[in-house]
Amino acid sequence: MTATAATTDTTAYVGIDVGTSAVKAAAFDAGGRTLAVESRPVGLDIKDGRVEQDMDEVYGAVVDVLAAVTAAVPGPVELIGLTGQGDGVWLVDDSGRPVRPAISWMDGRAHALVDAWQESGVLASVFRRNGGAMFPGSPGPVLAWLDRHEPASLDAAAAALTCKDMVFQRLTGTRATDVSDASMPFLDPRTRTYDDEVLQALGIAHRRGLLPPVSDPAATGELASGTRIASGPYDLAACALGAGVTAPGDGLLIVGTCLASLVATRELDLTGEPAGLYISTDRTGQWLRAMPAMVGTAALDWVLRTTGVQHTEVDALLDATPPGSHGVRVLPYFAPSGERAPFVEPRLRAELTGVSLESTTADLVRATCEGIGFAARHCLDAAGLSGSLAICGGGTRSPAWMRLFAEVLGRPLRIVEGEVGARGAVLASAERHGVELDTAAWTAPTAVVEPDPERSEFYAQAYEEHLERLAGSRARARAART
């Protein structure tokens, strides 16, 4: 590794990942080994389809974890990388303080707008311009909803930011976003600047002044302590960097609250069904074709809470019932804002079928995990996966679920454990600050899971049946809009 002259054997590199339900800071040594991790939970205010967060609570958690992880390492912190949840709207004043609670990416209040735009063709026209399929919690619909129903909040705001950009402004005083966070839905992926025609189509051109400047490459700064920091990319793209997914065709599956599928590409294809988005990267002409589904560990968490099962019991339950879960099937679309990838259907809801008095808790848990696996395959197919596949996120803590994913997807999985988003944030920051790190060592998988051929063959047929059930459910959701 080549770095600055101040680097020592005890030098640490810190990544901050501002997640939806927790804020984490992870410190690494020069070889990418984890030295310390600190985490603080943050709340979600969920009511009537609306999901909001307290910005001061989130920022306070960032300050706490950064102080704690810095105190836990033996030497100096060379630099900091910042990443965080994307989408939503975080309205701030000139000093970066909140104008109102943040509206989360999980929020569903703008679903009627999305329904109307879908029917009128606005969604499709925006997708044809920038490759971003809007959903209720993305900035376009949220800003349009606020403009119609809560204009005083927009009038009082100096900027409409995303999460990490709010944190970066509070830490450094600099207001900016990067090309990854700007990708949905206002950035032209070819010019890497805001597209005024998109703003016009959404009826919010008069609010353009709220959009932060796009820093390309990502903004850098210093903390009060003098430690260097860089902002971006946001969590999906940061995880791709942290998992070593940069070669065209290679993919990443993030099994977290959001089930995000990403495939690296040099091709910008704006045809086909409007879904997902193209995330611009810090390299011009390279994108991540992203399918960030609303499906994820939140679906399994709901099932576990409802059945009274602990997370520590999941592996045993998955091993207690065979593939196919004795006929129990789950369409795992539990999010109040429906689904956003690989299709947009705000009114889609979860379905449980095939249950009888003979069904067991193990059947229900396995059927849920299988349903999430089918959703992942749907997203990865739509994103154009052709190379190797890495997998990260909280779901990797379940070896049985990882075997199930490998079987459903029919391919080997490179397991990348730990704080992958924070790791990617450090790598991005190091590049911005001219600090060379051994990327291969930092992104090496912790294990590789091979699929069982017979089970993969079974799941290939089960996947086709899943798509048929999903088509019927989507048709019912569309009918509910009329």
TrEMBL record:
Enzyme class: transferase
Known EC number: 2.7.1.-
Keywords, comma-separated and alphabetical: Kinase, Transferase
Protein name per UniProt: FGGY-family carbohydrate kinase
Organism of this sequence: Streptomyces achmelvichensis
